[in-house]
Give the backbone structure.
Amino acid sequence: MREPNHAKKTEWLHGEAIMKEIYNGGMQAYIEKQVSHIEDALSFDGKKFVVMCVDERLLFGQEGLFNENECPVQTPGSFILCSKEEREKIFTNLPISGFTSHEGCGACKVYAKQRGLDEEDTDAHGKEFGQKIVEELREKGRDVYYRHITGDEMHHPKEFHIARVVYYINTKTFNPFALSEDERGRLPIGFGISRAHFNEGIAQKDLKLCISIAFGAHGFGNLFTEEEPLLIVPVAVDEDSLENMKTEVNDVVKTFAVEDQKRVKIDGFYSV
């Protein structure tokens, strides 16, 4: 088994205290104790929806990357891997005000490979796709901005993914930027999947991709163990919804090899 490099071990240790408390006491108890204003991150009244990638380096990016009045809508590559029909169905019912792409997007690399394009020019593919979508929305009378996010605006390091968790979000939004800097820093860094805005099939496909990235060469890989697993965190509006999301997530986890299943734990929270 290949040993993780020093940089990965260092980043892993940065999140160790938070993760140990969650492993020992559970996510619900941790949120209620350490992130007491979590409702601010879940509130969407009067806010605008902004499309972004699932990348944890965006959701937990540099201070000011997004603001408290923006609600992230997250899927790999900002919908670049979705069909046009899937996108249009979602966009019809969603008041989108912003659309983003970002530097070094892995989903854009997958997109390029699927179409026989230059896999090293991911930024160009992301920009071209994002600008095209925004133009289409504007032609329909929608007031939507486009923005390409640079690596310097994202959470560092840029070279690999540092997600310890995957947020499977069944609330209208989950925006850590709406929290104080202190409480935002207490949340474990993770990928974000906007389950509330997608059907089960799309969200589960996104989840499978995030787990694969976390376990792969560009994630923490074999640092995840049965004792220190990748945490899948369903975010729900109430206890019943949380149980439903846990079942949905477990259906995805069961598609992985048995040894990898042991390196995953499902433990979410609901707003109280």
Q: What stands out?
A: The chain has one domain: 6-270.
